């Protein structure tokens, strides 16, 4: 797969979403060359550790959801140095991957058992509206918590306010910790709201409106959208090999439900 082929296919997959969001702010290409890329590694985040792991696995292109954040001071510059030193290209795609049909939210909803996507997450007034998925066969919140725990391979936080069966799931992967998103979930008759970060306001408001709440990590609620993109690349360019790069569960601390 050549760089020109890769970029053309990204344009084909994301279309108008790439026009809606600025390159370098919400998606970008780094350290590409005229070489043919045969081995792609993917992860949610780009870090020095991810780049060194990619180098050890002879990965030629890393695909991530996030770029290195500018406010993690110095890390972006170090990542660029390591990409250059190891002759590895990097592509990241943030908000367009959140809102595309195969993206972060819908990928997780489907894996949790949602048979129907009722509402696609969108960018409205500077924030993410919720995605909504429905289960064909409703399950208990405890069963959904167990399903998400197994899927993310990490302990998740949850608040349970009733014993009703869960059919309709509201979701924003990653930093969907806004009270406006919880309000949208309750106004949309969701039985539970799932996201990848929480704050004091998240837990207070969920309790106030009696909305069942499940919170996984930012990294592992979003990895499945990156995997979906990687699989689409492999489907188009069948000669490429995919490697999921290992990320630590550093966002999970202690027993969150005691």
Automatic annotation (TrEMBL):
It comes from the Bacteria. Gene3D superfamilies: NIF3 (NGG1p interacting factor 3)-like (3.40.1390.30). Keywords: Metal-binding. GO terms for molecular function: metal ion binding. The keyword Metal-binding applies. GO terms for cellular component: cytoplasm. The keyword Metal-binding applies. A divalent metal cation binds at residues 65-66, 98, 218, 222. Pfam families: DUF34_NIF3. PANTHER family: GTP CYCLOHYDROLASE 1 TYPE 2 HOMOLOG (PTHR13799:SF14), NGG1 INTERACTING FACTOR 3 (PTHR13799). Belongs to the GTP cyclohydrolase I type 2/NIF3 family. This is GTP cyclohydrolase 1 type 2 homolog. It comes from Paenibacillus albiflavus.
């Amino acid at each position: 797969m050549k760089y020109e082929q890769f970029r053309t296919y990204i344009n084909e997959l994301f279309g108008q979403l790439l026009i809606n969001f600025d390159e370098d702010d919400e998606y970008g290409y780094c350290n590409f060359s005229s070489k043919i890329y045969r081995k792609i590694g993917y992860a949610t985040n780009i870090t020095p550790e991810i780049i060194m792991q990619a180098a050890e696995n002879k990965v030629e292109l890393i695909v991530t959801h996030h770029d290195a954040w500018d406010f993690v001071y110095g890390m972006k510059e170090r990542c660029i140095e390591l990409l250059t030193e190891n002759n590895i290209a990097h592509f990241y795609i943030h908000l367009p991957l959140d809102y595309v049909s195969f993206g972060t939210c819908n990928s997780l909803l489907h894996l949790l058992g949602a048979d129907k996507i009722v509402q696609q997450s969108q960018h409205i007034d500077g924030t993410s509206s919720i995605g909504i998925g429905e289960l064909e066969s409703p399950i208990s919140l405890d069963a959904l918590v167990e399903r998400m725990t197994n899927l993310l391979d990490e302990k998740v936080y949850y608040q349970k306010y009733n014993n009703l069966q869960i059919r309709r799931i509201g979701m924003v992967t990653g930093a969907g910790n806004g009270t406006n998103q919880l309000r949208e979930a309750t106004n949309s008759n969701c039985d539970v709201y799932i996201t990848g970060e929480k704050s004091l306001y998240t837990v207070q408001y969920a309790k106030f409106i009696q909305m069942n709440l499940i919170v996984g990590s930012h990294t592992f609620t979003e990895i499945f959208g990156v995997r979906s993109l990687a699989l689409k690349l492999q489907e188009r360019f069948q000669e490429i090999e995919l490697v999921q790069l290992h990320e630590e569960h550093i966002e999970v601390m202690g027993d969150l439900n005691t």
